[in-house]
Design a protein that fits this description.
By secondary structure, this protein is of the alpha/beta class. It contains eleven helices and 14 strands. It has helices spanning 23-34, 47-56, 75-86, 103-109, 129-135, 158-170, 226-240, 245-257, 261-281, 308-317, 344-362, and strands spanning 10-11, 69-72, 92-97, 113-118, 140-146, 174-178, 201-206, 219-222, 286-287, 296-297, 300-301, 320-321, 323-324, 336-339. Helix 9 (261-281) runs parallel beside helix 11. The relative contact order is 0.18. The structure holds pyridoxal-5'-phosphate. The site of pyridoxal-5'-phosphate (PLP) has 13 residues, from helix 3.
Length: 364
């Protein structure tokens, strides 16, 4: 669809901020290279950066230190490390559907089975424990939670988080918590799965979204469990040996000198969220939750007789690129995903086009 989009197509397809990293981080990156920081680092990464990251989580995990952090070359890299460490052939992992498209293939690469559980529109895209219990079997080793979610924008409150943690604890499952959108939240503070009364938890983190560094490829894994950290770091060694030396220095500078950078982007994302939700909810046949995190909306879009892929193709012909819900698993049928990572002017022009195409398709 990206290839088919015309030059003037309005791009709601991309899951990356239309911002640049903090300028001081770019300067620090260049300077670090000039200073000769172009070497391998230890596999887990620079101790100063890891120690800084550990302090960022002390409000939830007061006892962690640098040994609980492993720097990775992105969330993508971190996810693979986790599945390599946890999954043996024949194991299965509970994975949310609709899902970030790498989860099921990652589990399969490690010889396991993705065991999909539904996150339904009716429940704000938060799973029910009954649905999880129904899918659990003796080969289930872990459950992955992703809040705020890509693609749905779904998010949990503390009560829901506690129920989901209790389910994992009762069944002795590893919790993999993908919180790469933790600092892109609106209205209420982020609810983490860390420090919630259960320590068999591994968090996937990334600087891609929160510091607009998608092309840099840097993130980290964090767990209060020492043995998990040892195994994850071993997998990180096999996958890519270590992260980039100069970049780790630059990220440390960003965390120390531009600590509120993510929140500064959020103000703009929030204005866009309000705008796109209002426009979509005013269209006949469209209904959309107002997400409290990430930068996606995942509205239900009904055009009788058409699949979400057909609707997305018709929108493409009308000059709008968005993703069909089925790009995120079969449960995404009936939905489209719009990323509001473009300007408010473009959102407005894009929504005009969506309104007109849907109205033609529905014969309204
Ligand atoms: C939910 C989720 N997890 C992980 C990632 C991976 O991000 P990165 O590899 O850029 O760190 C993404 C990227 O879109 C995502 O949406």
């Amino acid at each position: 669809m990206f290839d088919m989009a015309g030059d003037d197509a309005i791009q709601f397809g991309l899951g990356e901020p239309d911002f640049q990293p903090p300028p001081l981080a770019i300067e620090a990156f260049v300077q670090a290279m000039r200073d000769g920081r172009n070497k391998y680092t230890t596999t887990a990464g620079h101790p100063e950066l890891r120690a800084k990251i550990a302090t960022l989580w002390h409000h939830l995990l007061p006892d962690i230190d640098e040994s609980n952090v492993c720097i990775t070359m992105s969330g993508t890299n971190g996810l693979l490390d986790i599945f390599l460490a946890l999954v043996n052939p024949g194991d299965n992992v509970l994975i949310p559907e609709p899902y970030f498209p790498l989860y099921p293939p990652d589990v399969e690469i490690c010889g396991g089975q993705p065991n999909l559980y539904p996150c339904r529109f009716e429940n704000g895209f938060v799973p029910s424990v009954a649905d999880l219990e129904e899918r659990l079997d003796e080969n289930t080793v872990a459950i992955l939670y992703n809040f705020p979610s890509n693609p749905t924008g779904g998010n949990v409150n503390e009560e829901q988080r506690d129920e989901l943690i209790a389910f994992a604890k009762e069944n002795d499952l590893w919790v993999i918590t993908d919180e790469v959108y933790d600092r892109i939240v609106y209205d209420t503070p982020h609810v983490s799965f860390m420090g919630a009364g259960y320590d068999k938890v591994i968090m996937v983190q990334s600087f891609s979204k929160t510091f607009a560094m998608t092309g840099w490829r840097i993130g980290y894994l964090l767990s209060p469990d020492d043995e998990a950290m040892a195994q994850l770091t071993k997998m990180q060694y096999y996958v890519t040996a270590c992260s980039n030396d100069a970049m780790q220095h630059a990220v440390l500078q960003a965390l120390e000198k531009a600590p509120d950078y993510p929140e500064s982007m959020c103000a703009e994302f929030k204005a866009r969220r309000d705008m796109i939700c209002e426009r979509l909810n005013a269209m006949p046949g469209v209904s959309c939750h107002v997400p409290t995190g990430a930068f996606y909306v995942f509205p239900k879009v009904e055009v009788p007789g058409m699949t979400s892929e057909e609707i997305a193709m018709a929108l493409l012909e009308g000059g709008v690129l968005c993703s069909p819900g089925t790009a995120f698993g079969a449960a995404g049928e009936g939905h489209l995903r719009f990323a509001y990572t473009i300007s408010r002017e473009d959102i407005s022009r894009g929504m005009d086009r969506v309104e007109s195409v849907l109205s033609d398709l529905r014969g309204d």
